[in-house]
């Protein structure tokens, strides 16, 4: 058995297959495991995460995996007031919803209710069967929001939320995709909330540890720095070719995001429907920035470290300090077209654009961090974007069914193929478990 990709999905699939007595090799393009989760050192043995990091209620599979691997969680710091910068004005507020004029708040609440009502009719495991699948899939999220949010401020905030979730601009996103993603998490609020939502908790020692500990368990079964280029399938099995590596397998689990999977040469080709799907799926563009200060100075000012801004380039910030609160770490996200624009600036320009933004929000103390880090996921060869691979209009309803359907002896895993918490670490874990089950079922290896 060969698993392509040593992100969470691939490693979980491999571990489950090995537990069932199969012999497995995991072939990974990068020189590290973890894919879209990666820890960065901030000194004194401490880390901050530059990729996926938060976990929350309902994310039962990633939480169970963390427990099994001995990785504990701690609550995301969110005491105090949040900040909102809108059209040059910075306000303080408490909770997920900022203090704005009542008619704007009413507008936001109304749209959130509409989303939650709509997701009840969108099954996350088969959104193409939703009663209005074609209609919802023919609208961009931008046009859907334009019709439903009456105030510009409500629209701006909802667009920022969708941008951070997807790394794409709302004009590039299918409404059906957003509803299906929210449906997979249980509600729209679950996607955006800290307390009770997907951002509630963090993993002590960082999210990449999950993959690192899985890889330790798997030992020599994980082969690094071997990008898979070609998978040829015949009646008896598959030949997998990577740079400097060749092997034959009985079945293959491809656990890489769909747009990257489509760069592998499949022989014979996978057929029109799968190809049409992967030609149209695209990764978002997200850049995650981290500034490290001696202390989380904002906490003393009664601030949570969370901010939403339309002032650019950063749209959202969070306190990402280690569990003991030292040093202070502020992270910020730059999403969509702005992330691509930002990547074209020089290193010094990028740093100063982000720190200017942090200073506008948190004051002068934010201007001079001891360490400044940035990961532009669109520039990463083996991710080519993030946080997730989303659907533009007209794709999910027509071709979505091909996302998980095995192609002969090739099985698909990865966060994008999950039906619960699609696009998240929890979804990645679930997809690895599902793909392993699929392989065992197909081979009749169950007792
Ligand atoms: C900035 C950012 C923030 C995020 N925030 C969160 C969050 O807070 N909470 C959350 O749950 N999720 C978050 N996510 C999403 C989460 O990180 C992913 O859903 C999850 O890690 C995906 O795991 P995966 O195994 O499906 O894919 P990946 O992690 O992408 O793993 C795929 C692996 O395949 C490898 N690969 C690619 N092509 C080839 C090839 N040809 N041959 C061999 N190997 C190949 C890659 O190198 C990679 O290691 C975030 C992601 C990003 C980028």
Low-confidence stretches: none
Assembly context of the chains: single chain
Which structural class fits the helix and strand makeup?
A: alpha/beta
End-to-end Cα distance: 19 Å
Count every beta strand, where a strand is a DSSP E run of 2 or more residues: 22
Query: Per DSSP, what share of the residues sits in E-state strands of 2 or more residues?
Result: 15-25%
Largest sheet: 7 strands, mixed
Mean pLDDT: 96
> Treating each run of at least 4 consecutive H or I residues as one helix, how many helices?
16
Rg, Å, rounded = 22 Å
Shape summary: globular
Cross-sheet strand order for the largest sheet: 7-6-17-18-19-16-20
Helix percent band: 25-40%
Bound molecules: flavin-adenine dinucleotide
